[in-house]
């Protein structure tokens, strides 16, 4: 392995994180051009169909790229898509060495970018800060692997384990700092889903309000029993998706309605078909209890975020309600646990399987 400087890959990862949901279904990618141990150009992929990170970084470096190093967190593309192949520009600008976080498992790349760079006489090194490179593109990698969206389950609960009071009140269990974290996360998900009870009780907007002009996820409402009989709720004031067995109709054309037959349709399969039709690559699910339970019980989740507030309410709504597990050894156990204090509250994050599953 050639000598390299981790700080340059860290910078590429920092740049990649500047993107939001507008990039999807593409991956989050940042790149830096380095010469004489100094960054002379950098860039990141900002939106789907737009210029990729590598050409942006090379263009920003100007005419100084010959003999330089390129650091990029994902293998450069080698095929013609909405933009020309990145490898062509890297070769043409006479980059000497390319340091890559991870290879790209997409069928249109899959090592071909690395091969073309090597065939052009460029030294290529892969798996630089590999775990961090995987982490930043969990959504992209999971969709490729599982052929469904990357799904995050999120809820806030009291210290005695309730997400709402006996009256259904839940505003607000978590503190303002926690809510800001949630809104920041929403910018990076294509869709946000809640159940009908959340709409009826809370009347949420389901928007991301942290960043001005930031990406807005599309609302998905799962009404398993047909409770919603009108569309006069905040969430239906913009383009949204409603999954329901009822005959409700939207005369405005704002809400895409998918009707399932409770007697004939398998709800899990029906929902996955809706996600596929919507070309959904990432989804954040924020409740309520029946909805969270449905997705967990059916194994439709990849990550769980729980915000715990130091409050006691004695009795209320439990976050999860599905058929109980008899043996602790059979419990759904989270992996790669992360936790931190958020003011007086506490945030716990875990994953359904090892984050670093990619070969």
UniProtKB/TrEMBL annotation:
The keyword Hydrolase applies. NADP(+) binds at residues 156, 172, 198, 202. Pathway: Cofactor biosynthesis; riboflavin biosynthesis; 5-amino-6-(D-ribitylamino)uracil from GTP: step 2/4; Cofactor biosynthesis; riboflavin biosynthesis; 5-amino-6-(D-ribitylamino)uracil from GTP: step 3/4. The keyword Zinc applies. PROSITE patterns: CYT_DCMP_DEAMINASES_1, CYT_DCMP_DEAMINASES_2. Its EC number is 3.5.4.26, 1.1.1.193. Zn(2+) binds at residues 52, 77, 86. This is Riboflavin biosynthesis protein RibD.
